[in-house]
Design goal:
Nucleotidyltransferase, domain 5, 2 domains, 7 helices, disordered C terminus, 226 residues, alpha+beta
Length: 226
């Protein structure tokens, strides 16, 4: 969870100045806030998250304690593939998250029918990743979505328009589910090379190799770049 610190500082001449920080991880923001308070010149101090919700220090500490046992600090990679001969698609998602002070990785894929193109498979892959987040119990938290389908991500962010009716149906479905779960999406288009894990999962699904595994990365010594 990322926040901005906003505090009212009292100068030696008793003037009030409102200051704001850059976007920071909530844990780091709390540590900085404690340093500010040690000056004895803080009149008011609040935290603002990506949804512009305002939190007091006490409220933010309580929130972090509550979400610690739930999946958080989530990055979801997605990719879709399409076989023009069988008219079937493969979708894959690799989801990294923290829970109870430990990092985890979920790798899962699925083979789908009734799709018409590789482009549609990319929308289906994003939808699949959102479904997996729902199964994990993710709600009311920011989630970073990464994929090499710049079209899907830029359309979801509103940067690019979508004129195809069937693709708009996917976008509407995805946006409705994100709103229902209270997920605050952060869209980060990446290269195909950077998305090789989700790409492999999608390819394996097309080959009939279905995967659903969760591992604790701290025990396996695996990080997101491997």
């Amino acid at each position: 969870m990322d926040v901005i610190i906003q505090w009212t500082y009292i100068t030696p001449k008793k003037q009030e100045i409102v200051l704001t920080s850059d976007v920071l991880p909530a844990e780091k923001a709390l540590l900085l806030a404690e340093d500010f308070e040690k000056t004895g010149r803080v009149k008011e101090l609040t935290f603002i998250d990506r949804r512009n919700t305002i939190w007091t220090k006490k409220e933010l500490v309580k929130l972090l304690q509550e979400i610690e046992s739930e999946p958080h600090d989530i990055i979801a990679y997605f990719d879709g593939g399409f076989d023009n001969e069988t008219l079937e698609a493969g979708v894959g998602a690799a989801i990294y998250y923290q829970q109870n002070h430990q990092p985890y990785r979920l790798r899962v894929n699925r083979r789908l029918g009734q799709l018409k193109s590789n482009n549609e498979a990319e929308y289906a892959a994003f939808w699949f990743a959102v479904q997996m987040l729902e199964e994990l119990g993710v709600h009311h938290l920011p989630v970073v979505f990464r994929g090499d389908s710049h079209v899907v991500l830029n359309q979801l962010s509103g940067a690019w328009p979508c004129f195809e009716k069937e693709y708009n149906a996917w976008l509407d479905r995805i946006e409705a589910k994100l709103k229902e779960l209270g997920i605050q999406p952060i869209y980060e288009p990446i290269s195909r090379k950077q998305n090789k894990e989700a790409d492999q999962l999608a390819r394996q699904a097309l080959e009939g190799k279905i995967i659903a595994s969760t591992i604790e990365l701290a025990k396996k010594g695996i990080d997101r770049d491997e």
